[in-house]
Every structure is written in structure tokens, then in C-alpha cells.
Amino acid sequence: METTQLTNEKQELVKVEEEVDLNNTLYYNNREISWLNFNLRVLEEAMDERNAFLERLKFLAIYESNLDEFFMVRVASLFDQIHAGYNIPENKAGMTPRAQLNAISDVLHKHVEIQNDTYLSLVPKLKDYNIHVLKMEELEKEDVRYLEQHFDEHIFPVLTPMVIDAHRPFPKLLNKSLNLAITVGNKPSKKQGDATDDEKLSIVQVPSVLKRYIEIPAEDETETKRVFVLLEDILSHFIHKLFKGFQVTSVTAFRITRNADLTIHEEGAQDLLAEIEQELRKRQWGAAVRLEIQGDNKNDTIVNFLIEKLEVERKHTYFYEAPLDLTFLFSFYGALKETHPTLADAPHPPQVPQDLVAGQNVLDAALEEDLLLHHPYESFDPVVELIARAAEHPDVLAIKQTLYRVSGNSPIIKSLKRAAENGKQVTVLLELKARFDEENNVQWARELEKAGCHVIYGIIYLKTHSKISLIVRRRNNKIERFVHLGTGNYNDATARIYTDLGLITTNEEIGEDATNFFNHLSGYMKKPKYNHLIVSPLDIRKKFIELMEKEIEHHKKHGNGHIIAKMNSLSDKALIMKMYEASRAGVKIDLIVRGICCLRPGIPGISENITVRSIVGRFLEHTRIFYFHNNGDEKVYLSSADMMTRNMDRRVEILFPILKPHLRDRIIDWLDLIWSDNVKAREQAADGTYHYVPRKAGEQVINSQEVLYDRAKRNATASSQALTDIRKNKVKSPF
């Protein structure tokens, strides 16, 4: 009887029998721990010496930013469940909310040590490039004098000490704010950090309106040495100027993270805009869920005082030697990249898409053939151009579009406003509940309405996460419909760093589907029967299960079952169980899951035919691609949805097929390339841990993102040559 140990935590051996219970909790990874392991892979990119030096610093910032959001939403939600008396285990790994919080704390304390070591090992290496991040005590006297003058003129006027005593209670501290807890007294303390009876405590917020680091000017323009000092170090050194007549006895830097998840009561909200604006004002003042302290002061009186006043659990108090809030490395990266470009990745400007030639009208091209766009290797400009041309074209009657996240200076928003001003019917389904973009989207909603657009907010209790645009044009007394469908947001900024796919088509049946989709969401209409689109809630899961069941049938008859799925996250239990069923039937399943993966591969008798890989690289992998061999009649679908319960049940999502064989073959080729990555790909073991995909001796080195970009460059060059040949009448235009 075959046995296997599923985890490295002394879990019992499980007998693999013909009849198995696929609900067994040992067959699943907990969602939150899986996410922490994903973020560890991000942190490992900061440790990877193969990456450009400044990129390693940026990965530290990404790791920190990810972790902030994790606490504000996921950890906060677990605390909410506990406070509500909810103690039911989650449905996969079987962990209660309290058990999950304890596990998060255990894992994250280990990760904090890695984060500390990574930062403290990287920063000294900057000296090799004549870049110095120094403490005040490491500076020359003239540099200290410069910083003192800078403090007096630019920092001191902004500071506000908040004394805590019998008459002045502990202040409200903003979410994610960096603060200094300062003890002052008439005489030195007997022990650093222990307040005497004469000592008083004050809080000073490190002003977020000021740059987090100060650069000391070079003595002359030819000087290549760059010297930086962190703002909190400057404040700590000169903080005594705020407390004249007293002696500063200790300074403790700390930071809090609060519950920032919005609770929107849609049913009772007559004006959803106003409801969200009201909730946004509360976001900064949610319950504290994490306390970060700089310095190893676990028994310090001040630390204990902060834990008590902020009502933070000690196990969710984290101590750092490195500076707090490493998100400042985003701007630091930008500052250093200007003078040290060779320390960053070489620029990869997006290329002209393979299905277009430079200067070609995207509307005209789409009438001839479906256009497949692969960002960021290929430019997002055709999508921007599609809406811009439609806004100005005299024969365009209507534009309908969903928006989830857009850039701060969105050209698409400008085009939609322009279209409305030009008298076209413009309908925008704008998702106000896009997490951490709510405030931006409220502002966009007001601007679009002011311009004359019809703005709708989707279906109650559901987030509209689908990415679709519909342009209706009348030409030669006939209606033409242009549809764009995508896996990523209509965001020209993130389209330069997220991998996504988009399809522009004039297929009449898809155009009809798009019309029905918007009419269903904006009016009173029963759920339409679509020709090609599959729409959640509910229908996408149903379609996936149907496709997997067909693959099982084909494999039983022909032995060639194969599924490839690429997504951000996999957590839906029903879909995981169906994959286990397919694996047990012998179907080969290759999963490329960047982040959360609750499925455990490689379990004998359960998932030995499933392989899970994750790619964390230069670009954020965001495409959702689903391939089914289907006994040779291959099916490829793209989607805005991951295989997560929220995408299946609580969001409006679209799964759409690639109908043109040449485009389907192109995507399959990309999938094969991504699967063969042996530089950035990591593979999940049966215990949920990840390791780099081993490279065999003599095997070609493949960084899939770099190869895809090189291909895009070659295709753009070929397209440019084709245009030249057309203009010289060497060949007939394919358009």
C-alpha cells in the first residue's frame, strides 16, 4: 500500500486507495499561507543576483506593498470573523480564522527576517556604485550642518508633537503612517526606553508630504558620489529641537496597518457614490491589525504601551532592523535610475502588434481580420486608438465599455468624454468597488457624467470585473460592431508592466453577445443566451467543469487528455476537485499559477498528473489562458477571471473563445514557451513549497518573458518591412 507524506509538519501519512475523499484537508493549501509563499517568491527576486541591482530594490518595495494590502484586507477580514464569533473552518485546508492568523504570524515572522537580511545586505553594496545611504553618525560634519539647516527650514515647520498625558489621550494615527514615539524627561533615563516618573511620551508623525530620503548636494557638478539620509533618521537626530527645556531619552520608530476593507451597504444606499465616499473616509481609521517596530525592543516599555493602546496582538507585532515601510524604494529606484541606468533593466518599449503595421487604422484592420494583442510585449496603443477613433468617427453611433481600473491620466476616459461631447451614445459600466481604486473611480464617474456619458454601476452585490468594449458604427446603411475583449484592465500605465491579452473582433455573433451583455447589465432584461461569451456569476465555472469532463471522456477513449491553464490564482474548490478527478483519470494538467494556489500537485493517487508552476519576473504575469486538447479539436479561451470562488460567484466576468485557428495556434505556442521557462519558473512540491525548475545539463536557457519580447521585436520589424513592400507595390496588401 503506497503512502506519501504530504507536508513537512509531521502530518499523518495518508493511504492512497482507489476510492478517496477529495475533501481531505491534506490535499489543499490554505489560501492565506499560499499567498504568503507567493510574496516570498517576490522577495526572492530581490535576493536573486541575476537581476539588475536596482530591480532587486524594486522587488523589495513590491514585497512591502503587497504585504500592506494583505494585512489591510485579508488579515483584517480574519479578525472581523473572530470578532463576529465566526469559528467555522475554511473549506479547503480546514483552518479556522484563529488558526489562520496564528499560521500567518508564524510564517511572516520568518519572512521578516529574510526581508531584513535582504535589505541590510543590498544597501551596503550601493557603495560599489558610489551611492551611499548613511546614518547621521556616519556623515561628515559639513553634511550634518547642511541637514540641520534643511531640518530647520523645511522639516521643523511641518512637525506636530502630540503629547500623551492625563489631559491628552493617545492620538488617532493614520493607516500606514510612519511615526516616532519619543520619551522626554528632566533627566536622563536610567535605562534606555524605560520611562521614569518624570518622563513624558509624545508621538510625532513622519510627514508623508515630505520625501522619505534627503540627498546631500554634491560639492560640485562633476561629483559622481550620491549621499542619501532617510527622513526618520534626520528627525530622530534633531528631534530635541521640538522639546526645548527637556531631554529626549528615547526615540522609537513604529508603523501601524489598519483594517481598510470597505463595507458597502448597497441595498440601502440610494446614492452609491455618496456611500463609497463616506466609507472611504473611514478607511484611515479602521482597527489596527499590525504594528511594526524598528529595533529589537520586545520588552521595551514604549512598545508594550503601543501594543496596549493600539489593541494589536503581540504576535502581529513585527520588529525590523531595516527601515520601516520599504515602499519608499519605488521612488528611490526612480531617482537612481536617472543617473545609473545600467543598474536597471534595459528598456523594453512595446512593439507594434504582429497583426498590425505601423500607422494602420485599427478600425479598418479589424474589419479584415481579428487582431490579437499581447501586452506589454506589444503596444496597448491600438486599444487607446480604437476608442479615440470611435470618439471622432462621424459614423460611430455608440460606445459601451466596462472600466475597473484606469490610469491617473487616462486617455480612454478622455476619449469617452470626447465621444459624448460629439453626440454619441456613451455608456460606461464603471466599477466603484474596485479595491483601493474606489476614490479614483468615484472621481471618474462624476467627470464622465458631467461630460454627458451614461454611467452605470453594475449589478447589486457583484463587482463588474469583465473587460469589454463595444463600438457601434453605421456604414453603407449597415450596422458594424467592433468588440474588444481582454484579460486586463483598460489601464495604459499597467499595460506596460502587466502581461495581458486582448482581442479586437468584428465577428457578428460576438458583436451580438456584447450588445446583449451591456443591455443585460444596464436594463431590465432576462439573462441572455450568448453565442460565444460565457459570463459569470455561475456560468464560467459550469463551462470549465463541462470542458474538464469532456477531457476526461476523451482521455478514457484516446489517452490524449491534456489541460493547460494560466492564471493569477486558483482557489475554487469545485474546480480543484474536478482537476483531481481528471488527474485520477490520467489527464495531464499543466498549471501556470502566479500567486495563490490551493491545489497540491504530485500527490500519488490524487494529483500525480498535475504540475504547478509559478513565474515571477520582470513583468507581472496577468494573462488568463485556458487550453483543452479536446482530442485534437483544440479549444483556447481567454478571460478576465481567475479560477477563484469570488470570480465564479461574486463578479461579472467574461470567458471568451479564440475562434480563428491561426490566433489559437499562436497562443498555444506562447503557452508552450512559458511552460518551458527555466529561469524564472518555480514548481510547487506536494507539500506546497516551491523550488526553481531545474535546468538539465546542456538545456537551452529560457526566460520566457525575454523570449516573448524578442519575438515581438522581430514581428514588428517584419511588419514594418511588409508595409515598405506594400508601398513599393512589391506585394499585395493583406489588408
From TrEMBL:
<dbReference type="Pfam" id="PF13089">
    <property type="entry name" value="PP_kinase_N"/>
</dbReference>
<feature type="binding site">
    <location>
        <position position="66"/>
    </location>
    <ligand>
        <name>ATP</name>
    </ligand>
</feature>
<keyword id="KW-0418">Kinase</keyword>
<dbReference type="InterPro" id="IPR024953">
    <property type="entry name" value="PP_kinase_middle"/>
</dbReference>
<feature type="active site" description="Phosphohistidine intermediate">
    <location>
        <position position="465"/>
    </location>
</feature>
<feature type="binding site">
    <location>
        <position position="405"/>
    </location>
    <ligand>
        <name>Mg(2+)</name>
    </ligand>
</feature>
<keyword id="KW-0479">Metal-binding</keyword>
<protein>
    <recommendedName>
        <fullName>Polyphosphate kinase</fullName>
        <ecNumber>2.7.4.1</ecNumber>
    </recommendedName>
</protein>
<dbReference type="InterPro" id="IPR036830">
    <property type="entry name" value="PP_kinase_middle_dom_sf"/>
</dbReference>
<dbReference type="GO" id="GO:0008976">
    <property type="term" value="F:polyphosphate kinase activity"/>
</dbReference>
<comment type="similarity">
    <text>Belongs to the polyphosphate kinase 1 (PPK1) family.</text>
</comment>
<keyword id="KW-0597">Phosphoprotein</keyword>
<keyword id="KW-0808">Transferase</keyword>
<comment type="function">
    <text>Catalyzes the reversible transfer of the terminal phosphate of ATP to form a long-chain polyphosphate (polyP).</text>
</comment>
<keyword id="KW-0067">ATP-binding</keyword>
<keyword id="KW-0547">Nucleotide-binding</keyword>
<dbReference type="InterPro" id="IPR025198">
    <property type="entry name" value="PPK_N_dom"/>
</dbReference>
<dbReference type="InterPro" id="IPR003414">
    <property type="entry name" value="PP_kinase"/>
</dbReference>
<dbReference type="InterPro" id="IPR036832">
    <property type="entry name" value="PPK_N_dom_sf"/>
</dbReference>
<dbReference type="Pfam" id="PF13090">
    <property type="entry name" value="PP_kinase_C"/>
</dbReference>
<keyword id="KW-0460">Magnesium</keyword>
<feature type="binding site">
    <location>
        <position position="498"/>
    </location>
    <ligand>
        <name>ATP</name>
    </ligand>
</feature>
<feature type="domain" description="Polyphosphate kinase C-terminal">
    <location>
        <begin position="362"/>
        <end position="526"/>
    </location>
</feature>
<feature type="domain" description="Polyphosphate kinase C-terminal">
    <location>
        <begin position="533"/>
        <end position="705"/>
    </location>
</feature>
<dbReference type="Pfam" id="PF02503">
    <property type="entry name" value="PP_kinase"/>
</dbReference>
<feature type="domain" description="Polyphosphate kinase N-terminal">
    <location>
        <begin position="28"/>
        <end position="133"/>
    </location>
</feature>
<feature type="binding site">
    <location>
        <position position="622"/>
    </location>
    <ligand>
        <name>ATP</name>
    </ligand>
</feature>
<dbReference type="InterPro" id="IPR041108">
    <property type="entry name" value="PP_kinase_C_1"/>
</dbReference>
<feature type="binding site">
    <location>
        <position position="594"/>
    </location>
    <ligand>
        <name>ATP</name>
    </ligand>
</feature>
<feature type="binding site">
    <location>
        <position position="435"/>
    </location>
    <ligand>
        <name>Mg(2+)</name>
    </ligand>
</feature>
<feature type="domain" description="Polyphosphate kinase middle">
    <location>
        <begin position="145"/>
        <end position="332"/>
    </location>
</feature>
<dbReference type="InterPro" id="IPR025200">
    <property type="entry name" value="PPK_C_dom2"/>
</dbReference>
<dbReference type="Pfam" id="PF17941">
    <property type="entry name" value="PP_kinase_C_1"/>
</dbReference>
